[in-house]
């Protein structure tokens, strides 16, 4: 009976060592995944900062407005807006009835 208990004890010790080794491997893998996630986060920040250096249509104040909306905005400010069909640029001209605040419209700089 003592031999049986000793054998069971040895098997239990062996299994405990196996479980401990598996836990250590999992801890190592989790640390590696965590480090990779940190690196990816840093790379995403760098890429986001690099992207901010580029001008895009979405950066323009008028980028999301269509031609009709832009014309309406300028007409209400006493201005006329015309577009060059070839390159899509806009030209804003003040009319004689434009009020003093029309020049402060952020769409004035749109081209």
How would you state the average pLDDT, rounded? 76
- Beta-strand content estimate: 5-15%
Could you give the count of β-strands? 2
Task: State the secondary-structure class.
Answer: mainly alpha
Q: In one word, what is the shape?
A: rod-shaped
Give the SSE string. HHEE
Tell me the span between the first and last alpha carbons: 95 Å
Could you give a short account of the major beta sheet? 2 strands, antiparallel
Oligomeric nature of the chains: single chain
Indicate the radius of gyration in whole angstroms.
Answer: 35 Å
Uncertain segments are 98-102
Strand order, main sheet: write it out: 1-2
In terms of topology, how is this protein built?
Layout: H1 2-51, H2 67-76, E1 79-83, E2 90-94
Antiparallel strand pairs: 1-2
What do these coordinates show?
This protein is mainly alpha-helical and 111 residues long. It is built from two helices and two strands, in the order ααββ. It has helices at residues 2-51, 67-76; strands at 79-83, 90-94. It has a two-stranded antiparallel ribbon with strand order 1-2. A hairpin with a 6-residue loop joins β1 (79-83) and β2 (90-94).
């Amino acid at each position: 009976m003592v031999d049986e208990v000793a054998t069971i004890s040895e098997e239990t010790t062996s299994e405990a060592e196996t479980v401990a080794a598996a836990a250590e491997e999992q801890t190592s893998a989790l640390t590696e995944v965590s480090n990779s996630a940190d690196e990816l986060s840093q790379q995403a920040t760098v890429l986001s900062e690099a992207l901010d250096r580029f001008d895009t249509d979405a950066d323009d104040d008028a980028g999301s407005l269509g031609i009709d909306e832009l014309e309406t905005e300028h007409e209400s400010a006493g201005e006329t807006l015309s577009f060059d069909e070839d390159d899509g640029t806009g030209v804003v001209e003040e009319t004689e009835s434009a009020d003093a605040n029309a020049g402060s419209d952020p769409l004035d700089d749109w081209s």
